[in-house]
Amino acid sequence: MLTFFGLTPQYRKNIFDQIHDLVYHGGGGFIYSEVYNMPIWLRKFHIHKVSEWNKKRNEEMKKAQKGNSQPLGKAMGPNISPSSTYNFKK
Prior knowledge:
Order of helices and strands: HHH
Radius of gyration: 25 Å
Distance between the termini: 84 Å
Shape: elongated
Strand content: under 5%
Protein backbone atom coordinates (compact mmCIF):
# COMPACT_ATOMS: atom_id res chain seq x y z
CA MET A 1 0.00 0.00 0.00
CA LEU A 2 1.36 3.42 -0.93
CA THR A 3 1.29 6.00 1.86
CA PHE A 4 2.89 8.90 0.06
CA PHE A 5 -0.34 10.92 -0.05
CA GLY A 6 -1.85 9.82 3.22
CA LEU A 7 -1.37 8.34 6.63
CA THR A 8 -0.56 4.70 7.28
CA PRO A 9 -3.42 2.66 8.69
CA GLN A 10 -1.53 2.24 11.99
CA TYR A 11 -0.94 5.99 12.32
CA ARG A 12 -4.61 6.70 11.60
CA LYS A 13 -5.61 4.14 14.24
CA ASN A 14 -3.33 5.82 16.79
CA ILE A 15 -4.83 9.23 16.05
CA PHE A 16 -8.40 7.97 16.40
CA ASP A 17 -7.50 6.08 19.58
CA GLN A 18 -6.17 9.31 21.07
CA ILE A 19 -9.24 11.25 19.98
CA HIS A 20 -11.54 8.61 21.46
CA ASP A 21 -9.62 8.49 24.74
CA LEU A 22 -9.77 12.25 25.26
CA VAL A 23 -13.41 12.61 24.28
CA TYR A 24 -14.62 9.52 26.19
CA HIS A 25 -12.33 9.57 29.24
CA GLY A 26 -11.70 13.30 29.40
CA GLY A 27 -14.59 13.92 31.75
CA GLY A 28 -16.70 15.77 29.20
CA GLY A 29 -14.14 18.50 28.70
CA PHE A 30 -13.47 17.78 25.03
CA ILE A 31 -15.52 17.42 21.86
CA TYR A 32 -14.47 15.41 18.82
CA SER A 33 -13.77 18.31 16.45
CA GLU A 34 -11.74 20.13 19.10
CA VAL A 35 -9.47 17.13 19.69
CA TYR A 36 -9.23 16.29 15.98
CA ASN A 37 -7.91 19.78 15.19
CA MET A 38 -5.70 19.97 18.29
CA PRO A 39 -1.91 20.06 17.77
CA ILE A 40 -0.25 16.71 18.47
CA TRP A 41 1.84 18.02 21.37
CA LEU A 42 -1.24 19.45 23.08
CA ARG A 43 -3.27 16.28 22.53
CA LYS A 44 -0.46 14.20 24.09
CA PHE A 45 -0.23 16.65 27.00
CA HIS A 46 -3.94 16.28 27.79
CA ILE A 47 -3.81 12.49 27.45
CA HIS A 48 -0.93 12.43 29.93
CA LYS A 49 -2.81 14.67 32.40
CA VAL A 50 -6.00 12.57 32.20
CA SER A 51 -3.93 9.43 32.73
CA GLU A 52 -2.18 10.91 35.79
CA TRP A 53 -5.50 12.02 37.28
CA ASN A 54 -7.03 8.56 36.81
CA LYS A 55 -4.02 6.86 38.43
CA LYS A 56 -4.20 9.17 41.48
CA ARG A 57 -7.93 8.61 41.77
CA ASN A 58 -7.52 4.83 41.63
CA GLU A 59 -4.81 4.94 44.33
CA GLU A 60 -7.02 7.06 46.58
CA MET A 61 -9.94 4.67 46.09
CA LYS A 62 -7.76 1.69 47.00
CA LYS A 63 -6.55 3.46 50.16
CA ALA A 64 -10.12 4.32 51.13
CA GLN A 65 -11.26 0.73 50.60
CA LYS A 66 -8.46 -0.59 52.80
CA GLY A 67 -9.30 1.89 55.56
CA ASN A 68 -13.04 1.17 55.52
CA SER A 69 -12.90 -2.61 55.44
CA GLN A 70 -15.10 -4.28 58.04
CA PRO A 71 -14.77 -7.85 59.23
CA LEU A 72 -16.83 -10.34 57.26
CA GLY A 73 -19.91 -11.80 58.87
CA LYS A 74 -20.94 -8.65 60.71
CA ALA A 75 -23.77 -6.96 58.83
CA MET A 76 -24.32 -3.30 59.52
CA GLY A 77 -27.79 -1.78 59.24
CA PRO A 78 -28.99 1.80 59.09
CA ASN A 79 -28.51 3.90 62.21
CA ILE A 80 -32.17 4.83 62.80
CA SER A 81 -34.66 3.83 65.41
CA PRO A 82 -37.80 1.97 64.26
CA SER A 83 -40.13 4.66 65.60
CA SER A 84 -38.53 7.37 63.47
CA THR A 85 -38.67 5.36 60.26
CA TYR A 86 -42.15 6.54 59.27
CA ASN A 87 -42.28 9.65 61.48
CA PHE A 88 -45.38 8.55 63.37
CA LYS A 89 -46.37 10.66 66.36
CA LYS A 90 -47.06 8.74 69.52
